[in-house]
Design a protein that fits this description.
52% of the residues lie in helices and 17% in strands. The chain is α+β, with helices and mostly antiparallel strands. Strands 3, 4, 5, 6, 7 and 8 form a six-stranded antiparallel β-sheet that branches. It has a two-stranded antiparallel ribbon with strand order 1-2. β1 and β2 form a beta hairpin. The longest helix is centred in the middle third of the chain and has 30 residues.
Length: 270
């Protein structure tokens, strides 16, 4: 048992020594020493907090070569830097820390140039404010590219939404126009069946035709809109009569009775 404990303590001591070697070379060593110390690390040697602290030390030193060596090991330009100072806890992304806390141009430029680095619009303002013209130029290019990608995606979505959807209008059954002097211009009623009626409103001014089909058997209304210029139609979902204005239901019911009566008289005459 004691042999196992001694072995565990030895492994922990060696891990701490490797980690401390990285901290020491980041603070004062050469790029080559930093590379060697980082290369000696094992994946389990540094947890997330250790990696964030090492990144902070590298940015604090403002040596881009040492920072590059460390970043090659961590391999994440967005790894959070979290530390406590004066009883307050602070968390930064590496590029935010380089831009606003240490104001180190070369490291900020290295991070801004990495396509994996998460970029926010405010960073461009920060770079300009802090006099980092090279960083500002790179951030502007990155933001412009992101906006081009977003615009292209929106264009594709818009094209999909505007694509005409052809919806077949149910054929009229014994369609009979209503003879009502109160109808407005472009407005008409047509009998679809003994239990359904269509109310059509057409407006050349706006280039649209609206057809409301009232089905008194299912007690639902369906709206069909047609673009008079392209002929494209869109059919809405059935709406229960209970959700509609009572006046429109009464008007449709009255016209249904009238047109059914007119159709019966014509059939009888024939």
């Amino acid at each position: 048992m004691f042999d196992n404990l001694r072995n565990k303590w030895r492994m922990e001591r060696e891990r701490d020594e490797r980690k401390q070697a990285v901290y020491d070379t980041i603070k004062s060593g050469s790029e080559q020493q930093a590379k060697e110390a980082v290369a000696a690390l094992r994946p389990q040697d540094m947890d997330s907090s250790d990696k964030g602290w090492a990144l902070k030390l590298a940015i604090d030193r403002q040596n881009v070569d040492v920072f590059r060596s460390l970043m090659a090991h961590i391999d994440n330009p967005n790894h959070p830097i979290t530390y406590t100072a004066n009883s307050y806890s602070y968390t930064f992304s590496p590029i935010d820390y380089a831009l606003n806390e240490m104001r180190t141009h070369d490291i900020a430029l290295l991070l801004a140039s990495d396509p994996r680095t998460a970029i926010k619009g405010k960073m461009l303002d920060d770079a300009k404010k802090n006099g980092m013209q090279g960083v500002a130029s790179m951030l502007a290019k990155r933001i412009a590219e992101m906006r081009r990608v977003e615009a292209a995606q929106l264009d594709r979505e818009a094209a999909g939404l505007q694509a005409p959807v052809t919806v077949a209008t149910p054929p009229a059954i014994h369609a009979e126009p209503a003879n009502d002097s109160n109808l407005g211009a472009g407005e008409s009623w047509a009998l679809m069946s003994k239990t359904s009626i269509a109310h059509v409103t057409s407006s050349e001014a706006i280039g649209r035709k609206l057809t409301e089909i009232f089905n008194f058997e299912s007690r639902e209304r369906v709206l069909i809109t047609e673009n008079l210029k392209t002929g494209a139609e869109n059919m809405g979902k059935p709406e229960a009569f209970d959700t509609l204005a009572e006046g429109s239901i009464k008007a449709a019911e009255s016209m249904l009775k009238q047109l059914n009566a007119d159709a019966a008289r014509k059939t009888f005459t024939i």
